[in-house]
Each structure stands twice: as structure tokens, then as C-alpha cells.
Amino acid sequence: MSALVTEHFVLQGTSSSTVSESGSRVSIYLSALSSGLVAIGFAAAIALALALAIHAAAPVPVVAGLAGEVLLLTLSLLYEHLRLAPAVLSGPAPAADQ
């Protein structure tokens, strides 16, 4: 019984860290996106500065977004693997004697 309780706590910890990581990634992504938009807004008065700001600021949210998607997909697949692991380890349920 204690092995199942321990496994349950491990799964809860994994789930909690996945959700926490998701929230952190979203806040970083939104910070990078808003900072880039502010930089583009400040540079909008001069055409050359606007072009440079767009070329400098545009890749950051794109790369951060793609990296976040890959990491969250990896974490969710890992969580599913851990969630299904107890069923694989314990094997089929014993038949009830009648």
C-alpha cells in the first residue's frame, strides 16, 4: 500500500511541477512579446530604426514560443508515461475468487 501512496505523491509532484513550469513559460513568453512590441513602438518614428527593431525583436517570441511548446509537449508525455507506469508495473488485477 505504501508503494502506491508513494507513487501517487510522485505523480502529484510531477503534475505540480508541469503546471508551474507552464505558468513560468507563459509569463516569460508574454514578457518577451510585450517588450518587443514596446521596442517596435518606440522605433516606429524612424523607418530604419523600425526595420532594425523588427528584425531584432521578432525572432525572440517566436523562438521562445517554439521552445516552450517543445518543452511542454515533452513534459506532458513524460507525465503520461509516469501516470501509466503503476498499471504496467502492477500487472493485471487478480481475479476475484468466488
Question: What would you say this structure looks like, in words?
Answer:
With 98 residues, the protein is mainly alpha-helical. It has one domain. It has three helices and no strands. Helix 1 packs antiparallel against helix 2 and helix 1 runs antiparallel to helix 3. The relative contact order is 0.12. The mean pLDDT is 76.
Shape: rod-shaped
Low-confidence stretches: none
Q: Taking Cα atoms only, what radius of gyration do you get, to the nearest Å?
A: 23 Å
Please indicate the count of domains. Answer: 1
Q: How large a portion of the residues is in β-strands, by DSSP E? A: under 5%
Q: Any descriptors?
A:
single chain; 98 residues; mainly alpha; 3 helices; 87% helix; 0% strand; rod-shaped
List the helices and strands and how they pair.
Layout: H1 2-43, H2 47-57, H3 59-90
Short description:
By secondary structure, this protein is mainly alpha-helical.
